[in-house]
Structures are given as structure tokens and as C-alpha cells.
Design goal:
The structure holds 2 protein chains of 2 kinds.
Chain A lengths: L14 E10 L12 H17 L1 H6 L1 E5 L5 H9 L5 H4 L6 E5 L4 E5 L5 E8 L3 H16 L6 E2 L3 E2 L11 E8 L1 H6 L2 H10 L2 E4 L12 E6 L7 H29 L1 H17 L5 H16 L8 H10 L2 H8 L5 H17 L5
Antiparallel strand pairs in A: 1-5, 1-8, 2-3, 3-4, 4-5, 6-7, 8-10, 9-10
Chain B lengths: L12 E7 L2 E7 L1 H7 L3 E3 L4 H8 L25 H7 L5 H6 L1 H12 L14 H22 L3 H18 L3
Helix pairs in contact in B: 6-7
The chains are: A alpha+beta, B mainly alpha.
Bound molecules: zinc ion (2 copies).
């Protein structure tokens, strides 16, 4: 999914992924919800012209997807792979996305803002994501006049995004903090620090599979580097606590710990029916087992792949037809059994 | 966003109170909320609550100017009322014509209204200007120290610190 394996990336035992997102708008067009069809089309064409006419595009080979012409399952499949936002998938008006071949960079067009530049990497790599966002931003800026004000900074459709227009986020896997209940204290502390916490698949979803996304709320009055370092600092404290609790739990009762992890591994490798919720829960246990070196014959990359392809829309895309919830649960179990049997790296 | 009572700490509590049959909503820090006592909490603060209630009130802020409510943006057709009901701004020009009224709202959201991050290349002039100004002030500071004008030196040092913190990171 992310084109590099988990072991080569820092903090990947707790940090699933890092993402930077920049909001930008054209100066000479109303923001998307105030545009007519002709204006929507012009904005899309101007972004395409800019991206595909630079030498940068040739090197990284981007591809344009017309969201408006895609059916709901295709759109949702892109959301599940974190390539586009749930808001872009829900757009009724003309919109699109330009995605790099390695799927690390997405440039969403006509979402809430004209442009949402997103860079996503696995593990703790906010700096790298920011470097790439900055590069794309500067490339676009050569041909596009952005809405910008000396005091408010980059102007956005919602005033919660003005200034840097930047959202820096990390996705953390926190099973030990959840098991012990300490997660509540973490969430409280985050809200006091102006840090938002969400679940893995977008703004409204619950934290399923013990995955939590933390991101900055304030976008104005700080430099991008300050925002990144505050999210990095908060994350590293959470990572430290998660690791301490993991080893403490294991030390206190290693049989019980191993039993839980191996039961989940046994279940997920053999089940014939798996709901999305149950799969996420079991995957979380198996991931914990792998990260702690208890389960040795599965790698994290396989688990990451399973997590994405067994989400509802991707399942239906793989099968090539619409499936009922019951059919999906059977198909999900089948795919997971298959992937865990044919492990590429063992 | 800052607490609407003390304007010092970050607001984490959505506070509702019924006063004379009127529902009053506020965003407070935990300390102020506890001191107010006797209340209903709807916490933690979510963006949904926030958009529905927040833009429509101006508790705690006193901007005296009450511009014409019928003013519409000539580019996108939005009025300030439209913004209050949707939480969305229509275009670049809206920020200019409604800027004075947006300022206190933006300040409440971010605790700040001065952008110090990345700017489009055409705007980086201001950054260069700041750097030059800092250099000039540093020379003045040296002269003030040599002349043993310590009060002046302290003022200059504060000014330099402020400019440096604004331009750091560019
Ligand atoms: Zn307060
Ligand atoms: Zn406007």
C-alpha cells in the first residue's frame, strides 16, 4: 500500500502512518460550494495543466481520476485506502483527484477547498510528508494565484483552516492504552492541548481496531514546523506510554498475554465469517503480537494490506460485484485466510 | 479556541445554561466551567456543536462597528448572515469585505490572527523586510549598549525578539 516495508520505518510498532494536508484556494474563483459547473471544470483543468506540464509530474508519474464519473463503491474504495477524504467521495459537484503512482501524494480538487494537497507515509515521517507537500505547493504556486492575506495567511472556505491551511496527523495503534483504560486520560489531555483525536476512517468514525488519529486544531499563528513538532512531541509521549504498558502487561502475565494474541491469530486465520468490526479487533491483537515479537510468522505489511482490502468497498471491488453485508463477511474471512496462508515474506 | 470567560486558557467544555428562559451557550476552559457550577456539560467539544452554535453568537467580544447586514460579496454573493448559518466563507473577496467581523471569530478559533508560516513567493518580500529590520535593530542595540543606554537597549531587545519569533521557520 505505501510502497515501503514497515520494518524500515521509524516507530512503526506504534505509528501506523503520518500525513500532512494543505488547504489551498484559487484567488480568482469563488470557493467550491459557490462555483457553477463551468467554474468547477475550469479549476480542474487549470490544476491538471499545471501538474502535468511540470517536469516534476513526469518524474513521479501522476494520474488524474474524475471523481464525478466514479460510482459510490469506487469512491469509497479510495477513501478506505486513504487516497481521498470522505468529503471528496461525497461530492455531488464536479471534482477530481491527482494521485502519484506510489500513492503517497494526492491532490484533491474541488473538495471543501479548491485544493487539498495530501502526503501520506507509513510510520513516523511527518517531516518527509511536509517536504513533499511544500514541493507540490510551490510547483502549483508557479502557475496558480492562491487566495492569501498577509494577516490571515492562506484563505480557506472554513475559518478553522486559515493560516497555514495545514493539518498534520499521525495514526497510532494503541491497544495497551485501551486495554488498561489509560486511553481516556490521553484523550482528555489531547483536548486540552488543542489536539483532535479521531478514528481511522475519517472524521466521524469511531476508533476501531484501537487505531487513533491525532492532529492539530490550530492552523494560524504557528509555523508549519511548529505544528509538526508539537504533534511529534505529543505522539512520542503517547508512543512511550503505549510501549511501557505493553511490556508491563506482558511482564505481569505473559501466559495470558500470549493466549490472547494467539487466540486472535487462530480465530482470524480460520474463521469462515468475519464482520468488519471483528476483523479489525482481531487484526489489532495480531498486530500487537507481531510488534512484540510473539507472533513470528506474519509480517506487518501483510496485516496492513489485509486491513485495507477487507474494508467493505474494497472487498466489493476485488469481487467485482456488489455484496450484501452477509456475503461480505464470508468473502472477508476467505481473503484473510488466503493472505495469511500465502505470506510473501516467509 | 480560547475560553470565553478568562480568554486565557483553551476552551474544552461546551457550557449551556438557561437564563430567563433563554438558552445561553458558551465555550469555557475546565477551570471557569467548574467555577460557574450548576450546569450541563456537553463535552468534549466537537466541530458539529461548534459550527451550529458558535458563529451565531458574539459573547465576550465587543466589536462596536455594526456594518450593514445586507452587504453582499460582489464576487460570490454571500452575506455575513450566510456565513453565520453555514460556517463557510464564499471566496477570497469575502475575507476582505467581512474581514473586521471575521477577525474576532478567527481569533477565538486560533488564539491568534497573524500568519507566520509559508507564504506564496510574491509575498516573501515581507519576510526579507523583516530580516533587514532585525539587522538594523541589532546595530542600534549595539550602539545603545556601547552608549550605556540600557532602557533603550531593553526595548530594542524586546522588539528584536518579537520580530525573530514572527519570522522563524518562514
Ligand atoms: Zn477560562
Ligand atoms: Zn465572496
Amino acid at each position: 500500500m505505501f510502497g515501503e516495508n514497515a520494518k524500515s520505518v521509524s516507530e512503526s510498532d506504534v505509528v501506523f502512518s503520518s500525513r500532512i494536508r494543505l488547504a489551498r484556494n484559487f484567488k480568482n474563483y469563488p470557493f467550491p460550494f459557490r462555483m457553477n459547473e463551468k467554474q468547477c471544470r475550469e479549476v480542474i483543468e487549470k490544476v491538471k495543466d499545471t501538474v502535468f506540464s511540470t517536469s516534476y509530474a513526469a518524474a513521479d508519474s501522476f494520474r488524474f481520476y474524475d471523481i464525478s464519473s466514479m460510482d459510490p463503491i469506487e469512491r469509497q474504495a479510495m477513501v478506505e485506502k486513504h487516497l481521498i477524504s470522505p468529503d471528496l467521495a461525497a461530492m455531488q459537484t464536479l471534482s477530481g483527484v491527482i494521485i502519484s503512482k506510489d500513492e503517497n501524494i494526492s491532490i484533491m480538487i474541488n473538495e471543501e477547498d479548491h485544493l487539498r494537497i495530501q502526503c501520506l507515509y507509513r510510520g513516523m515521517q511527518l517531516d518527509r510528508a511536509w517536504e513533499n507537500c511544500k514541493r507540490i505547493d510551490s510547483m502549483l504556486e508557479e502557475k496558480i494565484d492562491f487566495a492569501y492575506d498577509n494577516s490571515f495567511g492562506y484563505l480557506t472556505c472554513c475559518p478553522t483552516n486559515v493560516g497555514t491551511g495545514m493539518r498534520a496527523s499521525v495514526m497510532l495503534h494503541l491497544p495497551a492504552l485501551v486495554m488498561t483504560g489509560y486511553i481516556k486520560g490521553i484523550l482528555d489531555a489531547c483536548s486540552k492541548l488543542n489536539v483532535a483525536v479521531r478514528g481511522i476512517y475519517g472524521e466521524k468514525s469511531d476508533a476501531s481496531g484501537n487505531m487513533f488519529q491525532i492532529s492539530n486544531q490550530v492552523t494560524l499563528g504557528l509555523t508549519e514546523e511548529e505544528i509538526i513538532s508539537s504533534i511529534t512531541n505529543i505522539s512520542s509521549q503517547i508512543i512511550q506510554q503505549e510501549r511501557t504498558l505493553r511490556s508491563e502487561l506482558y511482564r505481569q502475565n505473559s501466559y495470558r498475554f500470549e493466549d490472547r494474541v494467539f487466540r486472535s491469530y487462530g480465530l482470524i486465520s480460520n474463521a469462515r465469517i468475519l464482520s468488519s468490526e471483528e476483523a479489525m479487533k482481531l487484526l489489532s491483537d495480531v498486530r500487537l503480537g507481531v510488534d512484540m515479537g510473539i507472533i513470528k510468522d506474519v509480517d506487518i505489511d501483510t496485516l496492513d494490506e489485509i486491513m485495507d482490502i477487507t474494508q467493505p468497498a474494497n472487498l466489493q471491488k476485488i469481487t467485482g460485484k456488489a455484496l450484501s453485508a452477509g456475503e461480505r463477511d464470508i468473502k472477508r474471512a476467505e481473503i484473510i485466510r488466503d493472505r495469511l496462508r500465502h505470506r510473501p515474506n516467509t | 479556541m480560547l475560553c470565553q470567560l478568562c480568554q486565557k486558557r483553551v476552551a474544552t467544555v461546551h457550557f449551556t445554561q438557561i437564563i430567563n428562559n433563554n438558552r445561553v451557550e458558551m465555550y469555557l476552559c475546565e477551570k471557569c466551567a467548574n467555577e460557574k457550577g450548576n450546569m450541563n456539560f456537553i463535552s468534549p467539544l466537537s466541530l458539529g456543536d461548534f459550527l451550529s452554535g458558535f458563529f451565531s453568537t458574539d459573547i465576550g467580544d465587543s466589536y462596536i462597528a455594526t456594518p450593514d447586514v445586507n452587504t453582499r460579496c460582489e464576487v460570490c454573493g454571500m452575506s455575513f448572515n450566510d456565513f453565520q448559518s453555514t460556517g463557510k466563507i464564499g471566496c477570497n473577496n469575502c475575507y476582505k469585505i467581512f474581514g473586521d467581523r471575521l477577525k474576532p471569530i478567527i481569533k477565538r478559533l486560533h488564539g491568534n490572527v497573524e500568519h507566520i508560516g509559508k507564504a506564496p513567493s510574491g509575498f516573501s518580500d515581507s519576510m526579507i523586510k523583516t530580516t533587514k529590520e532585525i539587522e538594523k535593530l541589532k546595530e542600534e542595540l549595539n550602539r545603545a549598549i556601547q552608549a550605556e543606554e540600557y532602557e533603550k537597549a531593553a526595548l530594542l531587545r524586546d522588539k528584536i525578539k518579537e520580530l525573530e519569533s514572527r519570522s522563524s521557520g518562514q
